[in-house]
Write the structure tokens for this entry.
Amino acid sequence: MNEIDNINTVPDAILKLIQEFSKLPGIGKKTAQRLTYHLVRTNLEDALSLSESIMTVKNNIILCSECSNITQIDPCNICNNPIRDKTRICIVEEALDVLALERTGIFNGLYHVLHGVISPVNGVGPDDINIKKLIERIDSGNFSEIILAMNPNLEGEATSMYINQLLTGKNIDITRPARGIPIGSDIEYADEVTLGQAITGRQKF
Ligand SMILES: [Zn+2]
């Protein structure tokens, strides 16, 4: 029998922590058990440091009021940076994509984080992600290029097409990264060279 199922011998506190770890992305039941039992053995100082770090993130991290990237100050360090090109916005699905693109050191413009993609199958429509604020931002600014850097899959494509439609007639170049990122893979996981080349060689949408 699996440890987690044998509820008679496992203390409630342990079961609860296993449950909490299991909710995290990429953490299966086995890994949740391993992490929990590791924490039981770990010293109090390290365990406290972990729980404090979680609370610090929850209490101090906010979304940038301009680009919706995660940040500790508002506007974020990217929106606030005077040497960034304020005429270009790269639209991405998740904050982790900003991290991936920043690692390439190629793109010097601004970002807009959608926090999701349009996915009718999962019941996610255009109003459920950060599109309205994007259009308001574009309408109130002076932008020359919008880069649609969604992941190369069906939902990313649907989201790009939807945003492209909203932007037609606004006299802004709409581009997308070159087809260097393999179909079905995530920007977040693309290596820096591939992603850098995809951004450099971006094409008209
Ligand atoms: Zn920002």
